[in-house]
Amino acid sequence: MADETPILINDLLHLTDDELNGDTYRVRLTFKWGNDEDSDPIARYRRDPEDALAHLLYYRSKSAFKVGQRVIGMTKIGGSLWLLTRIVEIVGITDNEKGEKAYQSRDVAQYRGYFGRVIVRYSNPKGAQTEVRKPSAIFPNIEVHEVRATGFGDEGFPGYANVTISWAKLKEIVDRRYESWHTALRNMKGIYLIVDTSTGSAYVGKADGSQMMWARWASYAKSRHGGNVELKKFEAADIEKHFQWSILEVMDEKTQDDYVNKRESWWKDALSTRGAGGLNRN
């Protein structure tokens, strides 16, 4: 017979008795995300996990945390379910021009694999609205409901033939290092297509042995133009708004780079990206 003993949050985090009862850790509960009561917290988290950190450590007139404390962020996502969004350590506190406390933090690396993946069940006592609590006060009542295989933003790699993503999505994938995408692209060479959706102009590029597909696309997430001469002519805001990335062809890591070059040239000819209206210079 299966053991139905509830798995509690500390079965994952393994805080010691001193950490549960002392000043090292605090739990920060976010009951509502922003002023819009109808705001979907999961949609917001998918769009920008840093938004969750902003709500975790928003400005206050009085210090809620001390330097050296670790803050466990839980955001209510509906009913008695909460999402473990972040666990950070406070590394600095400054005052802004209004005299409010601004917190500087860094992730507690040992728990990073749980961020955005652990859903817990916690029934907050009626009338209890304190946002910052000691772990010992609530951990015994927090059960693990689900540990997702991937974070909420990573909905799974769709397959090479089905990739069409905006710059914003590309940056999200790279910044959060979605495992399904990283696994699919890190060891693959290939040919990709970038399209300016406002004009229809296109650029054909390659990912060869010097970078592979993941590293090549990561350069676009960082610089927007990826070092391409023609793309450097565009304003960053235009690339962010109008450009999209697709995969035309993939090859495994053993494929010779000469073959990759030939396939890149073929695709440029096939899609006429070297002529008028195209974004390839050669």
UniProtKB/TrEMBL annotation:
InterPro entries with a match to the protein in the record: GIY-YIG_endonuc_sf
Gene3D superfamilies hit by this protein: GIY-YIG endonuclease (3.40.1440.10)
Domain of life, per lineage: Bacteria
Protein name (record): GIY-YIG nuclease family protein
Organism: Microcella frigidaquae
